[in-house]
Amino acid sequence: MITKIILATALSLTGATIATAQDADMSFFITSANPGNGADLGGLEGADAYCGTLAEAAGVTGKTWAAYLSSSAVNARDRIGTGPWSNAKGVVVAQSVDDLHSDSNNLTKDTSITEAGTVINGRGDTPNRHDILTGSDMDGNLVGNACENWTTNGEGSAMVGHHDRTGGGDNPTAWNAAHPSRGCGMEALQGTGGDGLFYCFATN
């Protein structure tokens, strides 16, 4: 009996070690919450810092993080590194920038998860949170003014994608360019099924 208990404990600890190793390798996630001011993220610098803060809180250190957001200064695709990228469960979501922006990427509701490894509500869930801020077209380049380069929570708009690859808009299955938001404040972002969340990628 004692032997069985020791074996069970060892297996449990092994499982915990594997989970921790996967988390440590995480290089992609969706923010679990908005920083608190709608699409005013403090610009790209503020958004990047928030990605890093969430990653460190989840136990992932030693990485440089960039938010997948386009601005008038730089396109999202050019600021996220070269890949490959894996989520908090150790699942690879894309091998490279070109793969990320192709039909072969592995971005789905079940793989586009938070830094804590939780699935985000999509269409059909309450509340729907599937609108993810990007300010980008399907190729990862700037479209529109991206809520004044992510510095306003008032009037304006930013392109959003659908992390669950379904819904309305011109490109409902696009993870990064489904439709523009109604505005830049939290109420406007939530009005079409979002919560001011955005994608984070490790650049190294």
Describe the structure.
There is one protein chain. The chain is of the alpha+beta class and 204 residues long. Helices cover 26% and strands 14% of the residues. The chain contains five helices and eight strands; from the N terminus they run αβαβββαβαββαβ. The strands form two sheets. Strands 1, 2, 5, 6, 7 and 8 form a six-stranded mixed beta sheet that branches. The protein has a two-stranded antiparallel ribbon with strand order 3-4. A hairpin with a 5-residue loop joins strand 3 (85-86) and strand 4 (92-94). Mean pLDDT is 91; it is low at 1-22.
Secondary-structure map:
Blueprint: H1 2-24, E1 28-30, H2 43-57, E2 65-67, E3 85-86, E4 92-94, H3 97-100, E5 131-133, H4 146-150, E6 159-162, E7 179-180, H5 186-191, E8 194-202
Parallel strand pairs: 5-8
Antiparallel strand pairs: 1-8, 2-8, 3-4, 5-6, 6-7
Quick description:
It contains five helices and eight strands; from the N terminus they run αβαβββαβαββαβ.
Look at the structure and give the mean pLDDT. 91
Radius of gyration: 18 Å
Would you identify the regions where 5 or more consecutive residues have pLDDT less than 50?
A: 1-22
- Which overall shape is indicated by the principal axes computed on the Cα atoms? globular
In total, the number of strands is 8
The first-to-last residue Cα distance is 47 Å
**Structural class by secondary-structure content:** alpha+beta
